[in-house]
Amino acid sequence: MDIKDYLNNFQYCESLTQYKRRKSREVYIGNTPLGGDNPIRIQSMTIANTRDTEATINEVMQLADAGCDYVRITAPSKREAENLENIKNGVRAKGYQIPLVADIHYTPNAAEIAAEIVEKVRINPGNYADKKKFEVFEISDEQYKAELERIKERLVPLVKKCKEHGTAMRIGTNHGSLSDRIMNRYGDTPEGMVESAMEFLRICGEHNFHDIVLSMKASNPKVMVQAYRMLVAKMNEENMHYPLHLGVTEAGDGETARIKSAAGIGTLLEDGLG
Q1: How confident is the model at residue 250 (pLDDT cuts 50, 70, 90)?
Q2: Is the pTM of this model over 0.85?
Q3: 3-270: which CATH number, 3.20.20.20, 1.10.10.10, 3.40.1190.20, 3.40.50.150?
């Protein structure tokens, strides 16, 4: 395919020369909506141990005072997820209404607990229902379909919890943690990142759950930009218009981190995405 055909078939924005912000579905995260005609929102993350209630509360307040619209808190196990209630109560008691986001890895039961407490839950489709073994194998269409049914069994309970409690969900693909199933069919590629998220997105749609935000993070800004653009093109094909959470993962700190984040996020904002 030459470059002209490529651009005609891979449309992620209305114009490559004129700025126009992509119109997305409005998703409420607590009382602070994202997407639609709302301004670009800012989110950051605590670094304290989530089991350290007071330290986490103080970091949440500091981030809110610095201008964040949302604060993400890691909850790698049930113990941390359960403590989110103490953190949320402490933050609210201090007079802060900032929405809290639980960052979940590997543990569906922790996600289901968090969905009853915080305003948004972030899951990684690469490790939410799959354990990475770095295995190389061939997978038939029938086997792939069976794997999707297994994923559905793990994801649907969380979808139901989110619907019941008015909790939003971020389906956050990470380039460094694609499942073996995705890796063996699509490789370590932006296409694999996109399909990893789309599988989860379609399951949510089957259950009429649409309070969803998506992200395609990679430590390489070029991979990250390509993945977001491909995601938007794919969603357009399937008449989906969910808002995007932009970020470069593992950017580091200092000048290098600022350059990587500016290159990745800035490029996509210029596209009208995010």
Answers
A1: low
A2: yes
A3: 3.20.20.20
